[in-house]
Amino acid sequence: MTLTTEQILAAQKANVETLYGLTNQAFAGIEKLLALHLSVARAAMQESEAHAQACMSAKDAQELLSLQAALLQPLAEKTAAYSRHLYDISTQIQGEFSKVTEARSAEVRQGLTNYLDNATQNPPAGTEHAVALVKSAAAAASSAFESVQKAVKQAHDLAHANFNAAADSALSATVSAAKTVSNSTTKSTPAPAPAAAKKRSS
Fold it and tell me: How far apart are CA 51 and CA 200, in angstroms?
């Protein structure tokens, strides 16, 4: 069986549509990444300015140390949130690409099955075993491909769950460390001597 001009044109049209669809999705992902980077840069600049103003208006070393320690916890939380946003964007893009890839591979497998069915409808005498072998091999390849797709999806889901667990654990540890540093700077700085004690000593 030979492919007709219409079938070839339809396949080419589908390939071009898929290509442009994937390109548009890639650009949408890049736009999301740029928007995230710009918002993070803007927020970091504003927070840096506010922190610098607060540090310049600190009245003593203890207040300055507590301002510095107080900066750690929000920084850790923001870093974790930024990582999650990046991961979500990349997961979304990868998911869209996977959907298109799975759909196209299903179409190709179905086309191959149809082609084999049409080509082997009236096999010459004595080739029935060879035809059955070719069909069996195509079915096995299709089944193996589907198994690999399922395994990749399961691995992706497991990696996503592990990433979230690791991010939560890292955030908890960082927040705990920031609180410890904040508490230790508050305790380690001696309190100023009362004015009455100073007068007695002089």
Answer: 39
Lowest mean pLDDT among 96-100, 125-129, 147-151, 195-199: 195-199
Residue with tokens 């179409």: 107
Written as one string, the DSSP assignment of 81-136 is HHHHHHHHHHHHHHHHHHHHHHHHHHHHHHHHHHHHHHHTSSPPTT-HHHHHHHHH
Q: Specify the pTM.
A: 0.59
**DSSP conformational letter for 189:** S
Sign, CA dihedral 173-175-181-183, equals negative
Q: Which amino acid is at 155?
A: A
Domain limits, the chain: 1-58, 67-92+138-184
